[in-house]
């Protein structure tokens, strides 16, 4: 029987990582009978080949191929593709490793959704993961998701997709051999899925600088190679918004990436060669939407390259690589990155190349929250990055359909703030109306303003929201208030009026008969914020559509513990359930009363004996 997954492992002088790598495959919960491993030793000189042979002798699902060094991972992977028998292919670099349940989850997704490609969550080990996947999705779009921003091969690929289109990796290359494979693969894929709820792939950052991406290359040749990738993209995606979105990724990742330390390391003639090679691609593929989407540091590189401003380009690249830039310049509601030559009349570089307004980040966090009577107090930090911190202001927008209210915060120069939301005054001095209120932090510097959702603090003490409570809302009287986290994103929301029924819905109680035959009922419940004089508590007896109330002496302590008792008299024959009614201002709630086992507390009132005798007598007479 053919395997389900063929794991292809290119190996070149990675002896110290091999055991961890292949043990992670052996440990897969998918099961070894469903796996085959093809390890291709690409001319290793550190003993990796011998180690692989020994491993294969002990594992009958492992095959090893030895070949002369090819100068990159492309040829070993292609050898593996040719030999593979699995329904799916997975390319595993020999210095990386898999999460234990990775392949089972990815195969389950591919089988269930008929996916051609499945991305798994990537974890960086000593380096940053290229993309952080947060949401598991049965189908994603290349144009509205981050999947196109990671074109590395460590994904699950349906082998029939690869064979149908004759896809192979570029050989004899250290960089982007995988991009040349992945671009046509993902563009031809019928469906792409993501498994984000499990750590699938661990991406190792070697401390010895031997990752392929760290090696020196012929950048002129590399740019010509990248040009071929861009032409493949253009052949498969018509000109327009979608092609521009994908091209933007290549401007970041391949076209402009060498205009950093590699560019500065060349002499003047070498820099001109790289610039001339890049200009060919930029003249062919640059569009206005791509320019608008790029950050200022790349926008400026494109402008200088296309206009032959090589000295200016060198200084702009140096400003990026030799230290932090000064804070951005503010003019009205616009921000401009502080790169050299801004508004220099001799260079006449457009302001739009420096404009960073849409990229100013709002860095914010919530550190704590707590109720202080009717006031919700929050502390945190909120700053517009790359903008002078002094003078920034902050506050929270409370929004509900049809309403928006502003609550300012007290902000220090370092961005830390304290915020007090008084639900009795938050609506422009009036009580906040009932409903669900979203909370968004807003930070302003001059006329520039950014906003974001408030999120749950990171501390373990805030895994749950603070207890719902009754608060004094001034002119509106007592009412219910609660802070809760949204399920999907853990955003903070205010619930005024107990819309989501967050306050207690049951009370604990008893019904007992005294030795004199009197029935006494009692109930107790804790409602935070319910203080003496807050409202009224009353015991009810309910049977069908009938409700009896009784005078109810009530005791309330400083912690909101409500104790009520009453004598059940005058109830008609039948079975009655005990309820506790709480009413305060606009808030009213009838609580079911349960016993210690959680069962409803009931009172059964029998038919009086005299009435029973009369009924029996009447029956006898009718029987005559």
Walk me through this protein's architecture.
With 624 residues, this protein is an alpha+beta fold. It is built from 14 helices and 30 strands. The strands form five sheets. Strands 22, 23, 24, 25, 26, 27, 28, 29 and 30 form a nine-stranded mixed β-sheet that branches. An eight-stranded mixed β-sheet has the order 3-2-1-4-7-6-8-5, with helices on both faces. Strands 13, 14, 17, 18, 19, 20 and 21 form a seven-stranded antiparallel β-sheet that branches. Strand 11 (362-372) and strand 12 form a beta hairpin. Helix 7 (219-236) packs antiparallel against helix 8 (241-255) and helix 7 packs parallel to helix 10 (268-285). It is flat and about 105 Å long.
Largest sheet: 9 strands, mixed
The first-to-last residue Cα distance is: 88 Å
Number of separate strands: 30
Tell me the fraction of residues in β-strands, as a range: 25-35%
Structural key phrases:
single chain, 624 residues, 9-stranded mixed sheet, 8-stranded mixed sheet, flat
What are the SSEs and their pairings?
Layout: E1 5-11, H1 15-26, E2 35-42, H2 48-58, E3 62-67, H3 74-83, E4 88-91, E5 97-98, H4 102-113, E6 117-125, E7 156-158, H5 159-164, H6 177-188, E8 192-204, H7 219-236, H8 241-255, H9 261-264, H10 268-285, H11 288-293, H12 296-306, H13 310-321, E9 329-331, E10 334-336, E11 362-372, E12 375-384, E13 393-400, E14 403-408, E15 410-411, E16 416-422, E17 435-445, E18 448-453, E19 469-472, E20 478-485, E21 492-496, E22 506-513, E23 519-526, E24 536-543, E25 546-549, E26 554-556, E27 561-567, E28 574-584, E29 587-594, E30 602-605, H14 609-623
Parallel strand pairs: 1-2, 1-4, 2-3, 6-8, 22-29
Antiparallel strand pairs: 4-7, 5-8, 6-7, 9-10, 11-12, 12-16, 13-14, 13-17, 15-16, 17-18, 17-21, 19-20, 20-21, 22-23, 23-27, 24-25, 24-28, 26-27, 28-29, 28-30
């Amino acid at each position: 029987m053919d395997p389900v997954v063929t794991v292809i492992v290119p190996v070149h002088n990675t002896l110290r990582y091999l055991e961890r790598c292949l043990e992670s495959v052996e440990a897969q919960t998918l099961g070894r009978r469903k796996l085959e491993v093809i390890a291709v030793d690409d001319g290793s000189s550190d003993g990796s080949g011998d180690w692989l042979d020994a491993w294969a002798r002990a594992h009958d699902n492992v095959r090893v191929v030895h070949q002369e060094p090819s100068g990159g991972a492309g040829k070993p992977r292609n050898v593996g593709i040719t030999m593979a028998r699995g329904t799916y292919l997975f390319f595993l670099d020999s210095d990386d490793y898999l999460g234990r349940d990775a392949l089972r989850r990815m195969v389950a997704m591919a089988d269930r959704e008929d996916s051609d490609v499945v991305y798994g969550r990537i974890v960086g080990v000593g380096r940053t993961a290229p993309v952080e996947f947060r949401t598991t999705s049965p189908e994603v779009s290349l144009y509205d998701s981050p999947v196109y921003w990671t074109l590395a091969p460590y994904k699950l690929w349906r082998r029939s997709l690869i064979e149908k289109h004759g896809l192979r990796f570029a050989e004899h290359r250290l960089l982007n051999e995988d991009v040349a494979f992945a671009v046509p693969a993902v563009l031809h894929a019928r469906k792409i899925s993501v498994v984000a709820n499990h750590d699938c792939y661990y991406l190792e950052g070697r401390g010895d600088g031997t990752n392929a991406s760290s090696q020196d290359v012929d950048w002129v040749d590399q740019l010509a190679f990248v040009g071929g990738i861009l032409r493949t993209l253009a052949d498969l995606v018509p000109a327009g918004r979608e092609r521009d979105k994908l091209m933007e990724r290549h401007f970041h990742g391949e076209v402009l990436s060498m205009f950093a330390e590699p560019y500065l390391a060349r002499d003047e003639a070498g820099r001109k060669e790289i610039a001339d090679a890049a200009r060919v691609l930029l003249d062919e593929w640059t569009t206005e939407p791509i320019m608008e989407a790029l950050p200022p540091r790349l926008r400026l590189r494109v402008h200088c390259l296309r206009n032959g401003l090589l000295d200016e380009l060198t200084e702009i690249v140096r400003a990026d690589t030799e230290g932090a830039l000064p804070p951005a310049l503010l003019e009205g509601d616009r921000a401009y990155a502080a790169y050299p030559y801004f508004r220099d009349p001799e260079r006449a570089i457009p302001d739009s190349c420096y404009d960073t307004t849409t990229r100013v980040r709002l860095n914010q966090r919530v550190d704590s929250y707590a109720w202080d009577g009717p006031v919700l107090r929050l502390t945190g930090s909120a700053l517009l990055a790359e903008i002078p911190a002094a003078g920034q202001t902050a506050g929270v927008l409370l929004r509900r359909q049809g309403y928006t209210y502003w609550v300012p915060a007290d902000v220090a120069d370092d961005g830390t703030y304290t915020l007090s939301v008084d639900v009795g005054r938050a609506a422009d001095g009036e009580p906040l109306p009932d409903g669900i209120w979203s909370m968004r932090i807003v930070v302003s510097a001059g006329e520039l303003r950014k906003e974001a959702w408030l999120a749950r603090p990171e501390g373990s003490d805030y895994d749950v929201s603070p207890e719902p409570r009754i608060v004094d809302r001034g002119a509106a009287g007592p009412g219910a208030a609660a802070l809760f986290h949204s399920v999907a994103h853990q955003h903070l929301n205010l619930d005024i009026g107990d819309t989501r029924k967050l306050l207690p819905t049951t009370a604990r109680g008893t019904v007992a008969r005294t030795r004199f035959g009197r029935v006494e009922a009692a109930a107790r419940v804790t409602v935070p914020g319910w203080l003496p004089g807050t409202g009224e508590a009353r015991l009810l007896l309910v049977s069908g559509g009938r409700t009896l109330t009784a005078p109810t002496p009530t005791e309330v302590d400083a912690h909101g513990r409500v104790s009520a008792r009453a004598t059940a008299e005058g109830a008609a024959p039948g079975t009655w359930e005990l309820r506790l009614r709480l009413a305060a201002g606009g808030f009213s709630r009838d609580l079911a009363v349960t016993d210690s086992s959680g069962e409803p507390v009931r009172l059964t009132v029998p038919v009086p004996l005299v009435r029973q005798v009369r009924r029996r007598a009447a029956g006898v007479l009718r029987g005559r």
